[in-house]
Amino acid sequence: MQTLIILLGWTVLAWLVVRASQPPADATAPQSAPFLGGGTAGTHAWQRYHFRPYTMTLLFIAFEMEMMFMYPWAVVFVSEGIVALAEMGMFLAILSVGILYGWREGVFRWQ
Amino acid sequence: MTAVLLALAVLATLMLGAVLAVAMDRRIAQLAAGLARQRIETEAPDRLNRNLAPVWYFALAAAGLSVVPFAPGLALLDSPVGIVIWGACEALTIVAVFLHGWSPNAPFPLIGAYRYVAIGLPVMLPSMFVLIAAALPAQSLSLLAIVESQREMWNVTRQPLGLPLFTIVVLTLTLRGPMDFADAADIATGTSAEESGAARVVWEVARAAMLVSASAIAATVFLGGPLGPVLPGPAWLWIKTAALMAIFTWLGHRVARTTPSRMLTILWVILLPLSFVHLAIAGVIAL
Amino acid sequence: MAVSLLSCLASRAPAPVFAAIGPGWQAAVERLLARTGLRGALTPRDAGILLVAGEMPDNTAEALNRVHDQLPRPRAILRWTRSHETVDDIAARIGASWRNLGAIDEQDLLPDQPPNEWKCVGPHGQGGKGMMGGTPYGRPMAMTGEDIRDGLQLDRYTARIGPFAPMLPPGLVLEVTLQGDVIVAATVQHQPFAQPADVDAPELCAARMLRLLGLGGPARRAVRGGRPGGLWVRGAVPRGLGMIEGAGDARDRLAAFLRGDSPVVAAFDLPGLLPGLEWSEAMLVLASVPPSAVLRAASLPEDA
């Protein structure tokens, strides 16, 4: 509960400081055109953007879930001994096969 | 009323540290001049997120600094899972920077935002491995316990790969140097390409505040935080934080930035396996 | 008290200059922007002064007005057209304008109208062709097209990146179609401005690439003739990028610039080199070729 109050307090304070330090934004139409070095755009910039590393993000989720398991593992590690190290090593090795596969398939390249 | 004192200490550290970071970049005069200029609004922007992105960036920096102990055993957020709170601040920074680039509805900021997400997400992985490795000898996820576990030897000496790997993380969180994909020069300063006037200054100061916060976490986890012989706890924390800020600023100005796809490959193929090795070494030593 | 402290600090700030470079003035402007007391802005939103160097051809006048209007106010235009005005003189003029910006404060040059009429079905201008039609808030939305690698149908964004983009050679107008941040089509709509041979100087070419690699300080040191002093500079350029017959790849050319050599680059196909490259790679490739070679390559296809 105290954590939540502190975090909300920082957010409110940050909002007040940012609000006080900058005037409202305004612009005439030619001022608000997107910067393209003097050129023109045909469309809005918002689009169904082709986020090319999307396959990498699937691999990232796998590692993120593994990180979730590592949090409690770190707390009991010393009392569990070498067995804990071996088990986490196996988990990481299995996921590393995923990295190798992804590397061969080119998920870390942009195109 | 130690909570009030600690909150004031966090706020003072953040504000003075941000000024120090801007001074290390030699940009104080530039930012002071920028405050007086017009703040331009782009065509059909997402106003709510544009106004809130720097707010969240500041709030995450403050939240991250709240878990750092200013004296052995004394932190504003004395949580048994301090590392997890800091990890949440890191991950939400990616969201804040993305929204900063998304909201102007312009091509270059949008490219900067998506590039940053592509690099920022994998950087979270070595960050957590390094912090968990530091938690192993402490047998706890709390930063206070990690500080206590460094009384004999600092983590930077018994876990040597930790600070270099965490340097990459800090450079990514504060959009500096080799990891500055969000505000890069080839996309006309990226997420800040359509920002002018006070909004630009506020974003730069928020980056500086995040540098203070991340350096304080690095000082706590690797350099023993408030531990030290003669001076009181907070003084040691400030000295170590300032030293790390200087190192990170220097690296940010000197190291070249490669293309995003190459950095992605380097992160997954070199840095992540290095963090596995680091974890293994830390595990063996802790036993 | 705080206000006067701020204004005291602000008066010592380096003048932010956005340079619109015209024919024949690229080398002079790049050397000017490396001086202390000024800084070159990468975007007009960051700048207070628009420096128009050289006589611009008439067909770029509207683009220049667009860039001028994108500077935040207060702003000033400075024209540097007389070659007998030295670098010191123009730097002094820039400094004087920067300190007097409140008095100068140029008005907009283009009329205050949205780019399209807000027509169509809905109240914000949207509607028409299914979900994505109409001109909401004054512009249409991007439509889909096939991706060049895997046929995935995602949006293509087409724009003309103009004659005064700081990361492109001055005068080059590229009509690029981007899917995400990969260029899928690029055509040259206006050739780069003609520049004299001193723009191929290896320190200027090295400085252009160093700026794209994020090393602003080393770039300034390089232009002034010293050692740039960055870390991992050659390694940061990917191997095999921008391979041109007889001139190696971008990393080899950067190494040559840093050594002080000017590699001779034969004719190459500029619009054929760019598609398939991601934006930062494309910018690195364009910067790694000396400007006279880019001008020759962009002028070659007369039927473009």
Briefly summarize what is shown:
Chain B has helices spanning 2-24, 28-34, 47-66, 82-102, 107-135, 143-148, 155-158, 162-173, 198-222, 233-254, 260-286. Chain B has eleven helices and no strands. Chains A and B meet through helix 1, helix 2 and helix 3 of A and helix 1, helix 3, helix 4, helix 5 and helix 9 of B.
In words, what does this structure look like?
The complex is a heterotrimer of chains A (111), B (287) and C (304). With 111 residues, chain A is mostly helical. Chain A has helices at 2-21, 54-80, 82-105. Chain B has 287 residues and is mainly alpha-helical. Chain B has one domain (2-286). Helices cover 68% and strands 0% of the residues of chain B. Chain B has helices at residues 2-24, 28-34, 47-66, 82-102, 107-135, 143-148, 155-158, 162-173, 198-222, 233-254, 260-286. Chain C has helices at residues 2-11, 26-33, 61-69, 87-99, 101-104, 202-212, 216-223, 233-236, 250-259, 270-273, 279-288, 291-299; strands spanning 15-21, 38-40, 49-53, 76-80, 144-146, 153-155, 157-161, 173-179, 182-190. Chain C has 3 domains: 2-104, Rossmann fold, CATH 3.40.50.12280; 114-146, no CATH class; 197-299, no CATH class. Chain C has a 4-stranded parallel sheet with strand order 2-1-3-4, with helices on one face. In chain C, strands 7-8-9 form a 3-stranded antiparallel sheet, with no helix packed on it. In chain C, α6 (202-212) runs antiparallel to α11 (279-288).
